[in-house]
Task: inverse folding
């Protein structure tokens, strides 16, 4: 089965029938990050770079308010400064240690995409068996290894619950952009 066919199958599960035309391209959009490295080393390295850049901006952007020769600080600099502490908190949340086995961000994003798409189509995020089956099918379509010996959809229960409780608004925003732009 080709990747396109696999994404079409996932879209059909999520939509409980013929999917909206925006869903397959949206699933393809996220697949690269989900099918990434099996460990989170690449992700951790990227987050560390973003944290360093954020710390640098927090430390040095105030300089713009004290520029010589009457240079005025642009408004956008203040907007950036206002959002940097929130970005810092989000980055810390991504790297915080959790009890139990280490988080697999790729699985969380996989579940967040499925749950977010389910929510856009059916009006609410869901942890039902069909939604968990969609998580498993999407994971496999993205090239993920089987979860558990039998690939039981219930293996996705904890991750789907996490995707419903954590702030994955960025996933929902991207899904919304696909829904709006592909009609």
Result:
């Amino acid at each position: 089965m080709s990747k396109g066919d696999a994404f079409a199958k996932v879209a059909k599960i999520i939509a409980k029938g013929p999917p909206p035309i925006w869903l397959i391209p949206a699933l393809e959009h996220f697949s690269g990050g989900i099918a990434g490295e099996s460990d989170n080393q690449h992700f951790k390295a990227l987050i560390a770079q973003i944290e360093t850049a954020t710390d640098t901006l927090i430390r040095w952007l105030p300089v713009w308010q004290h520029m010589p020769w009457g240079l005025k600080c642009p408004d956008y600099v203040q907007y950036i400064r206002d959002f940097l502490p929130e970005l810092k908190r989000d980055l810390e949340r991504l790297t915080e240690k959790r009890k139990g086995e280490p988080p697999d961000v790729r699985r969380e994003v996989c579940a967040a995409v499925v749950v977010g798409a389910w929510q856009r189509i059916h009006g609410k995020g869901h942890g039902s068996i069909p939604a968990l089956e969609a998580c498993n099918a999407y994971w496999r379509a993205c090239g993920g290894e089987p979860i558990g010996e039998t690939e039981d959809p219930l293996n996705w229960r904890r991750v789907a619950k996490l995707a419903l409780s954590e702030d994955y608004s960025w996933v929902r925003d991207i899904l919304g952009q696909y829904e709006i732009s592909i009609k």
